[in-house]
Every structure is written in structure tokens, then in C-alpha cells.
Write a structure and sequence with these properties.
five-stranded antiparallel β-sheet; Alpha-D-Glucose-1,6-Bisphosphate, Chain A, domain 4; alpha+beta; globular; 141 residues
Length: 141
């Protein structure tokens, strides 16, 4: 059984500006209320280290693999607990240029594996929303 979260927000900024803030991972501890750390070389096929802290939830560190990186458009990674098929999560950031001076930022995650049906995703979704709002604030400044 699979579960998904999807959030989106319209940001009044160029894709380049939003992408620049989103991919300056060393600045995450200073502004990102959800993904408080992202370390490693972000290139397709590489493993990175991600630390999240959902609101009202427990922090977690995991080491996903970058599965897609398209500058100014998309970044996604796939993480697993123990090994693939137990509990997997594909996290996706997408930027859509609305061609009117705004960008739609979509943050989503697709959970699969035998334990995915047991998830309560409310705290994680709240974390996505907090991050989206902060990214909007910084991008529109």
C-alpha cells in the first residue's frame, strides 16, 4: 500500500531565484524549519545525508540517493529504511515557471513498502507547509 503527501505554493519570484535558495543546502540550518540539514554532493546517483524535524514530531536522519536533478526544475531522492521494500520514501521538489513572474513550488513525497500503510503523515505535511512558506518568504524578499 502506498501513501502520498503533496503541497504547493505560488511564489512571486523567478525559478532561478527560488532554485538558488532551495539548493543552497549549507543555509538550511538558518532558515529551513523542516529539513534542518542536507549534506553531500547533490548529483544523480549520489547518497546524501538529510536531517528532518517535523513539527510535533521526532527528528530523523537518513541517507537517501539522488534520483533526479534538473537545474531550476526538479530535485528528488529515494530513501529506504533497512532495505528497499520495507519502507521507502521518494521526496520531490518541483518548480514550475508560470511565465508570469511566479513559480509554483511543489513539494511531495510518495511512500511505499510493507510498513507505509501504518504512517500518519500529518506532522510531515505540516513540515512541508512550514518549509514552503519560508521558501516563499525568502524568495519574495
Amino acid at each position: 500500500m502506498a501513501k502520498s503527501i503533496r503541497t504547493e505554493i505560488i511564489i512571486s519570484a523567478s525559478p532561478e531565484k527560488v532554485w538558488g535558495i532551495l539548493t543552497k543546502f549549507e543555509n538550511y540550518p538558518a532558515w529551513n524549519p523542516f529539513i534542518i540539514s542536507l549534506e553531500g554532493v547533490v548529483e544523480q546517483g549520489n547518497k546524501i545525508t538529510v536531517t528532518i524535524h517535523p513539527p510535533k514530531g521526532k527528528g530523523m536522519i537518513f541517507k537517501p540517493t539522488i534520483i533526479e536533478y534538473v537545474k531550476y526544475k526538479k530535485l528528488s531522492w529515494l530513501g529506504s529504511v533497512l532495505f528497499r521494500g520495507i519502507f521507502d520514501g521518494e521526496h520531490i521538489f518541483e518548480l514550475i515557471d508560470n511565465s508570469n513572474g511566479t513559480v509554483t513550488f511543489i513539494q511531495s513525497e510518495n511512500f511505499t513498502g510493507i510498513f507505509s500503510s501504518m504512517l500518519n503523515l500529518d506532522n510531515t505535511k505540516d513540515g512541508f507547509i512550514l518549509m514552503n512558506n519560508k521558501l516563499k518568504e525568502l524568495s519574495e524578499y
